[in-house]
Structure formats: structure tokens, C-alpha cells
Design goal:
single chain; three-stranded antiparallel β-sheet; D-Maltodextrin-Binding Protein, domain 2; 9 helices; Arc Repressor Mutant, subunit A; 302 residues
């Protein structure tokens, strides 16, 4: 029996989206076409792959057994495409980079302007998310992560650290100081004294919120959001403080913030530039990676 990549791709799209209609949109085809492909595949295999219900399309036991093989076929297809792309002679095309929102705003967006001059035939696409994207499946070409990769098919191109601090608007710091002095407090504020701005659902697991919840009894943020730019705007507006990179860029909204002295240093935050091993020699990816390495080297030197 011959199972084509189109068969596996259709099966995988529905399995991951848990919906025939969503799987069809992902593949860029109509739902009737997807339904026909699955029906033909089930007929050839002699078993049902999905159970259809109000909750969408759920894998049957037979479908669940096929899922790892379909995922591996997707990785092979991505690898084939990458090796083909490696045949390009000059850096040209789109390079997609995944990064945490803060790094995307502070580093990658300004770097895109530099790349426009130095690499005019390359266009940046930045995926700003606190969640990891699957580099092995080609969801992005490069990623900046806060932890080194543990997947064998990935590699770290450079690692760097950034100094972090508790930053807030000058107006908020003045109000905090007045409040503590009025209460007879002497010395730096405790963590529980600060009005914290941090992540909310679905990103409560993203630091520094877990740390704050561990050290502050009954922790309640003064303001929370699932969007970094909203959090940034709240800090600038004087709602409270946030743990951020001390080296705010001139001309950015965060440039006017001041640091709250806690009486101790926060540990440095590390990040790593990661790519699939097979992508490191693709000219357009290598050119952008070199540019990012150059920028991160500046961070390490500061």
C-alpha cells in the first residue's frame, strides 16, 4: 500500500487542528476535498482514523498509532525543503524569527531596519510569542529562546545574558517612595510593597510571575495582560513596575523608565539564538543569524 505525503499531510492537519474545516483552511483546500482524502485513506487502510462529533475530529486508536509516523514524515518533508533551499546562491527571501515579545520589540524590530540596508533582498518576519515554536517542523527559521534547546536536531549559535531590573515610571517611583515614607518604612522597598505588572492567562507560567507568586504571599498583580505591548504601556502610564532589561533603547517607550533599588541584584537573564542544524548553511538564514550574533555580541560587550 502506497501512502503519499499528501495523505499524511491531510491526516496530520486534521489531527493537530482537531477539525476537518480547520485542517482544510491550513492546507488551503476546501473541506469536501479533505473529507474525500480521509475517506479514501480510511478505505485503503481498512480502519477509521477520526471520530466526528460536536467537539470536532478526535483520533481513534488506529489514528493515534499513525500520528508519530505522520509527524516524522512532516519533519522529513521540512528537511527536504531546507536542503533544497540551501542550494540558493545568495541570501534572498523571507527569514522567520521567533522570539519572546520583549526581545522581539527591543532587538529584532530595530535590527530589521539595519537588515533592510545591509541585506536588502531579505525580509524579516518576527513571531513574538512567549511559547516555543517548532523549529524542527519549519515553523520558523531561527528562534531566540530563554533556555538552550534539548532537541538533537537543533543547535545554539550564540548565548548571551542581559541585566534585568525592576523598572517603572518616575511618577510611580515618586508615589511609591511617598507611600512607604508615610508608613514609616526605611530602606529599599520589599517586593510585596511594589505594584506589579505581569502576565495573565494563558501565560501565568511565564517568569517573573511564578517567582513573584512564590515570594509574595497571596500575590495579586496591580495589572496583568497577555500582550507585552499592553504591559509595556501600563508601565509607562505609571500603573506599577515590571522586571525588564535595564538597557532600554533610546527612542523607545521604555527609555524614560527608572529603576527601583531593591537593595539586591536580580540574576541576569540568559537567551540563546537557536536554529535547526540543517538550516545553518542556508545563505539567507546564515546572513540573518550572523547579523543577530553581531547584535548579541554588542549586548555581551556592554
Amino acid at each position: 500500500m502506497h501512502i503519499t505525503w499528501e495523505d499524511a499531510q491531510t491526516f496530520l492537519a486534521i489531527a493537530e487542528e482537531r477539525s476537518f474545516s480547520a485542517g482544510a483552511r491550513r492546507l488551503g483546500v476546501g473541506q469536501p476535498a479533505v473529507s474525500r482524502r480521509v475517506a479514501h485513506l480510511e478505505e485503503r487502510l481498512g480502519c477509521q482514523l477520526f471520530s466526528r462529533g460536536k467537539q470536532g475530529a478526535e483520533l481513534t486508536d488506529a489514528g493515534a498509532r499513525l500520528l508519530p509516523a505522520a509527524e516524522q514524515m512532516a519533519r522529513w518533508a521540512t528537511e527536504f525543503e531546507r536542503l533544497a533551499q540551501g542550494a540558493e546562491e545568495s541570501p534572498t527571501g523571507v527569514v522567520r524569527i521567533a522570539a519572546p515579545p520583549g526581545i522581539a520589540v527591543d532587538i529584532l524590530a530595530p535590527l530589521a531596519a539595519t537588515a533592510r540596508v545591509r541585506l536588502p533582498d531579505i525580509r524579516f518576519e518576527v513571531l513574538a510569542s512567549v511559547e516555543h515554536v517548532d523549529l524542527s517542523r519549519g515553523s520558523a527559521d531561527l528562534a531566540i529562546r530563554t533556555r538552550p534547546p534539548n532537541e538533537p536536531e537543533l543547535m545554539t549559535l550564540i548565548s548571551a545574558t542581559t541585566e534585568i531590573g525592576v523598572l517603572a515610571s518616575a511618577d510611580y517611583v515618586a508615589r511609591l517612595t511617598n507611600r512607604l515614607e508615610s508608613a514609616g518604612h526605611v530602606g529599599p522597598p520589599a517586593l510585596a510593597d511594589i505594584d506589579w505588572i505581569t502576565w495573565t492567562f494563558p501565560f501565568e507560567h511565564v517568569e517573573p510571575r511564578p517567582m513573584l507568586e512564590r515570594v509574595i504571599p497571596d500575590f495579586r498583580p496591580a495589572f496583568a495582560s497577555d500582550n507585552f505591548l499592553v504591559l509595556q504601556s501600563a508601565v509607562v502610564a505609571g500603573l506599577g513596575a515590571m522586571i525588564l532589561d535595564r538597557r532600554t533603547r533610546p527612542g523607545t517607550p521604555l527609555a524614560g523608565l527608572v529603576e527601583i533599588d531593591l537593595g539586591f541584584e536580580l540574576p541576569a537573564s540568559e537567551f540563546h539564538l537557536v536554529c535547526a542544524k540543517s538550516m545553518q548553511y542556508v545563505p539567507r538564514v546564515r546572513a540573518v543569524a550572523d547579523l543577530i550574533v553581531e547584535e548579541l555580541d554588542k549586548y555581551r560587550a556592554e
